[in-house]
Write a structure and sequence with these properties.
Helix content: 25-40%
Largest sheet: 6 strands, mixed
Radius of gyration: 23 Å
Strand content: 15-25%
Number of strands: 10
CATH superfamily of the largest domain: TruD, catalytic domain
CATH class of the largest domain: Alpha Beta
Low-confidence stretches: none
Number of helices: 13
Order of helices and strands: EEEHEEHEEEHHHHHHHHEHEHH
Length: 313
């Protein structure tokens, strides 16, 4: 089976994401704020910032906790994005008066509930390709005609399996508590890395030169840099790898990750209640993790990262 549905057609060529304005994303809200309530919906435009960077700057400016903030979904850092976040207990005037580096507040309006993950109708993209082939317009139209007729496969790619396609191997190593292997997978195989400085850093890491690897790792490799910094400070691989366990129908006191760089979050329905019903059979039950919300897991992950990194994220 060909990798691309349109593999027999010429491509457009070109470069993508050469500048933040080349990749523009605008959220399409599922609903609009009603104009009253305790939650202030801020629609902002950000450049060269992750959603977590945005949250960190908002909490610093407003004095709110990250747990009180809400957002639809994570957005690219190498882009210009328009998205909505919610903060609690902040007047409209204070929201509109915010002046933050890399962030422009476009609107502020009150609503009754906090924004939750997935409260989104979709996204609108404007993508600019530079240095395309002379006949790129005709090539693009031919490709789009095929996709319109046949549809686009919903395949998982780098967003789920990471840039190196090895997130599953990192997860497996963590589950097996093989932290050295997990860190090695996270730093990456030099032969699979296309970014020059990252590739050089991975080679130094493989050779055991942790400090030079840390010096070479690019700034966007924040997780990798935090791990290497901990290793350079003399911590073991187990201490250096932050691990968050999610538990429901299994006892966290038996299976939770252990150590100062580990944490666990559980369902609001206790383990004993989940499995204590007469005739309970795990093979015949539906999902038992429903009372552990995405927001709770995300908040626990941010708290663990803050504790391990020594700063907010």
């Amino acid at each position: 089976m060909p990798r691309l549905l349109t593999g027999d057609l010429p491509g457009t060529g070109g470069l993508i994401k050469e500048a933040p304005e080349d990749f523009f994303v605008e959220e399409l809200p599922l609903y609009l704020p009603c104009g009253e309530g305790e939650h202030l919906y801020l629609t902002v435009e950000k450049r060269r910032l992750t959603t977590f960077d945005l949250m960190q700057r908002l909490t610093g400016a407003l004095g709110d906790s990250e747990r009180a903030l809400g957002y639809h979904v994570l957005k690219d850092a190498r882009a210009t994005t328009r998205q909505t976040v919610s903060v609690s207990g902040i007047p409209v005037e204070q929201g509109l008066a915010l002046r933050l580096d890399g962030i422009t507040v476009l609107s502020a309006r009150l609503h009754r509930n906090k924004l939750r993950l997935g409260h989104l109708a979709g996204n609108r993209f404007v993508i600019r390709l530079r240095q395309v082939a002379p006949d790129a317009r005709e090539s693009a139209r031919a490709v789009l005609a095929v996709l319109e007729a046949r549809g686009v496969p919903n395949r998982f790619g780098s967003q789920r399996y990471g840039t190196l396609g090895n997130s599953d191997r990192i997860g497996r190593a963590l589950l097996l508590r093989n932290y050295r292997e997990a860190i090695g997978e996270l730093i990456g195989d030099p032969e699979a890395i296309t970014h020059d400085r990252w590739r050089q850093a991975a080679r130094h890491f493989a050779a055991g030169d942790l400090r030079q690897a840390l010096a070479l790792l690019p700034g966007h490799c924040r997780n990798e840099r935090t791990l290497l910094r901990a290793l350079c400070d003399g911590k073991s691989a187990e201490e250096a790898a932050p691990t968050l366990g999610l538990f429901g129908p299994s006892p966290s006191h038996h299976y939770a990750p252990w150590g100062v760089r580990a944490a666990a979050v559980t369902t609001t329905i206790p383990y004993a209640q989940l499995v204590g019903a007469p005739g309970f059979d795990h093979r015949a039950t539906d999902n038992l993790m429903g009372s552990l919300s995405v927001d709770a897991a995300a908040a626990a992950a941010r708290e663990l990262w803050r504790r391990c990194a020594g700063r907010a994220v």
